[in-house]
Amino acid sequence: MNGGRSATSTIHVVAGLLLDRDRIFITRRPDGRHQGGKWEFPGGKVDVGEAPLDALRRELHEELGIDVQEATPYARSRHAYPDLAVLLDVWRILRYDRTPHGREGQEARWAEVSELRPSEFPAADRPILRRLQLPALYAISDVARLGQDLFAERLLRALEGGVRLVQLREPGLGPDGLLACATKMSALCHRFGAKLLVNADPELAITAGADGVHLSSRRLKAMRARPLDPDLWVAASCHDLEELRHAQAIEADFAVVSPVMATSSHPGASPLGWARLSELCRAVSLPVYALGGMAPRDVEQARQAGAHGVALLSAAWASDFGSSVKGLRG
């Protein structure tokens, strides 16, 4: 992956995800090479005429000294660097023999997935890392309906139950009220290792100490580039393919598509349905959450449609919600 290539040439690269509960095995690229010093998912180039799985087995044997017995496709990522374009073909390793190590002298280690920083990885690897870090559920605040005191109680219960990704969306609070609410919610979420995204101006989200911003479809349309650095989260609300493609173009980390089913919060909206959601998910590479009439039990159907998980509004703050989300963190 060194220089001397035109910007239009594309290199097909395979990478393997070796996971052990919440840990993943990563290696560091040698200094002096393309993206030198960055951490990456181990793998390498696919030779001409070589099947991706065969390339994966060969590369991981050469780099890590393991023999891959079973692997399944996980995701693909495309990125154009100034000197070359990369198609990253990522596989999840299900079974392998021997102990992985840096067989070629490269630095290698097991790391907690949640603690990895996208800025320390090549740009082509970052969407894969973000996908690994996303939980199955995305809870959207409902302060307007519940009131701040009851919502704070329900949020605490949800966090205790395992919710790890929350959006603060309260347009009725106004900038000052939203900032105060976001600051309190951010501190509470961080006590549990959860991430808070604020549906507001990106600067307000940062001032509140939140982990990122959730762009409304209106804000998304006005964006011409990613509004925050890679170590902060950027999500977007989308309703059609054009918006999804724009979210992908500005390098959003994930999108929320709605309404998938009929919902009381938008009674006049025509639901997309599972079939259309599946078509939209196939058309883009960024992770998608299904929103609209969703419950935790819909995670499996959403994943069958190609989504990463489900986003919840009123269902997220039911009194028994915490007990219904255990086992749905990944």
From TrEMBL:
Cofactors demanded by this protein: Mg(2+)
Transcription is among the record's keywords: no
Recorded catalytic activity of this chain's protein: 8-oxo-GTP + H2O = 8-oxo-GMP + diphosphate + H(+); 8-oxo-dGTP + H2O = 8-oxo-dGMP + diphosphate + H(+)
Binding positions for Mg(2+) per the UniProt entry: 43, 63
InterPro entries: Aldolase_TIM, Mutator_MutT, MutT-like, MutY_C, Nudix_hydrolase, NUDIX_hydrolase-like_dom_sf, NUDIX_hydrolase_CS, NUDIX_hydrolase_dom
Nudix hydrolase domain ranges (all copies): 9-134
Gene3D superfamilies: Aldolase class I, Nucleoside Triphosphate Pyrophosphohydrolase
Residues annotated as binding 8-oxo-dGTP: 29, 34, 40-43
EC number: 3.6.1.55
GO BP annotations listed: DNA repair; DNA replication; thiamine biosynthetic process
Keyword set, alphabetical order: DNA damage, DNA repair, DNA replication, Hydrolase, Magnesium, Metal-binding, Mutator protein
Superkingdom of origin: Bacteria
Pfam family, one: NUDIX_4
GO MF term set: 8-oxo-7,8-dihydrodeoxyguanosine triphosphate pyrophosphatase activity; 8-oxo-7,8-dihydroguanosine triphosphate pyrophosphatase activity; 8-oxo-dGDP phosphatase activity; 8-oxo-GDP phosphatase activity; metal ion binding
PANTHER family, per the entry: 8-OXO-DGTP DIPHOSPHATASE, NUDIX HYDROLASE FAMILY PROTEIN
Entry's family note: Belongs to the Nudix hydrolase family.
Protein name: 8-oxo-dGTP diphosphatase
Organism in which the protein naturally occurs: Sulfurifustis variabilis
